[in-house]
Amino acid sequence: MEVSAEKSKILSNKRDYALKPLDHKVIPGSSVGAEAQRPTWSGRLEFVLASVGYAVGLGNVWRFPYLCYSSGGGAFMVPYLIMVLLCGIPLLFMEFSVGQYTRLGPVHAFAKICPLLKGVGLATVVISFVFSTYYNVLMSWALYYFFNSFESTLPWTSCNNTWNLAENCSSGFPGNATHLQSASQQFFDHRLLQKTSGIEETGGIRWELFGYLIISWVIVYLCIFKGVKSTGKVVYFTAVFPYFILFALLINNVQLPGAKNGILYFVTPVWNKLFEVKVWVNAAAQVFNSIGIAFGSMISMASYNKFNNNILRDALIVSITNSFTSILAGFVIFSAIGYMAHTHNLPVDNIATDGPGLVFVVYPEVLSTMPVFQLWAPLFFFMLLCLGLDSQFATVEVAVTFIKDEFGAQILRFLKREELLVLAVCIIGFILGIPHVTKGGIYVFQLMDHYTAVVSLMFLAFFEVVAVCWIFGVPRICLMVKRMQGKTPNIYFRLCWLVLCPMLVLCILISSIIQYTPARYGKYTYPGWAEGVGWCVSLVSIIWIPLGAMQEICSNKGSLLQRLKATLISSVDMDAEDPLPEKQNLDSSVTETLLT
Prior knowledge:
Layout lengths: L4 H8 L31 H12 L2 H13 L6 H26 L3 H8 L5 H30 L20 E2 L10 E2 H11 L13 H18 L3 H11 L2 H13 L5 H9 L9 H15 L5 H6 L8 H34 L12 H13 L3 H43 L2 H16 L7 H45 L5 H24 L5 E2 L2 E2 L2 H15 L1 H12 L4 H8 L3 H4 L11 H10 L1
Helix pairs in contact: 2-9, 2-14, 2-16, 3-12, 3-14, 4-12, 4-14, 4-18, 4-19, 5-6, 6-8, 6-16, 6-17, 6-18, 6-20, 6-21, 7-15, 8-16, 8-17, 9-16, 10-14, 10-16, 11-14, 12-19, 14-15, 16-17, 18-19, 18-20, 18-24, 21-22
């Protein structure tokens, strides 16, 4: 469709005041739009680094390497990269578009885009905040290991300590096939956690971890209390420093005996794995969880962008960097595991493990046998701290953004300063994290993680894609991008948004339901009441979707069908003061936009 010269001139005008997003009105008596009051990143590099820091987290270090070697080695790269192209990049571009165009957090953005599913926005805020309450516990563990790594002899290398169980402790690494435990495993279980026999026995607070949890939240607060102005400066270090450590570790590890065998185990393709549906589901789930789709963080961070920021370029940078980091971490981890397998004369698959155990049990054992461990051990745990903090910044910022968007005037009238609002959010997050630093806290942690990051996330992701890609519609997404970037997204993105992304997310959701297994921690199985608590944790976020839909339907007038139709109409169409040029022609042009 050819547009008029006058319309083309308007659409190509990049000035913010002439290209106001849908959600903001001009303040009466002022020449400046309301969106001018919203702070922005000082530069586009700050936004890119913050997004990279959020996407690249501890999961890149422990989850991806394990998934890769257990799902066909090098063959896993095929489904993984396909999912990055068909799901990861398009959905990240979509979230960036929504956040940057509306300049709102996920709650208000979804209320504008699809009133019927406005609860999706609140659900993403809730799941992010719940995630932040236990994710910071990992930072307390990293701090504990970091400060203990300065001792002349690493405390997890010996069986001659008060916390060791002498009858089954091995000063080496016995592998997974025996009843023995490594000294490193016993340090984690009986010194760091001092874990009880199960979730039924809390055992009191671990006061050292309690103190480190306070330190973790203080660090988070000091990095985000000024909003994007402070976070934007911190990420220059926290997002970049881990790469220096990863490359240094890789250079060191590949020179160790046995490193080659570990790397080969990591990358050698097992092609018949490609015929297993589970491998493809794992690849899609890894992309989804790693980039952070449906947590609301990417929408929140993009809402602080300037209106004409090049989000397509940023989405490509973040996605590619995230995948590169996962692969790099795989080489670092498995070169070290190969070295350990060589040292203890064990097969590689008898050492590799999934989850926190890989970086808090296996890798500390590897570090203790490396030359110059006094250097590598502190650097490794400091790297974990940086990786985790970046992700924590973003998840806490989602809650802060929601509160400022929804209750900003009332809250600031009471608290006076935004810094006190951020402090209140951090204090609440700290209090909710206390159960994780009890002696039975590891069981609480595992339960929360399973029902938040596994069960809830897939439901939220599906409804988010339905709300934006199908109900709001690909044509309107294209119009949003065209107003910000000056051109319509190409057929690749339109096809992904319209068909491939919704279908892929639906497949992941169905597979997650079919393959559902209750939460476990090692060989420990949770009692029925704990499973019930887990489902309640999951419902804390999911429940807002049906509640929001019912509230929206009830607030409209007419028959049920009329009310339902009304809830499907975006404010893009309903807002009479919408600044889109030639607003009256929007409905007739959206279909043509998809085809041009």
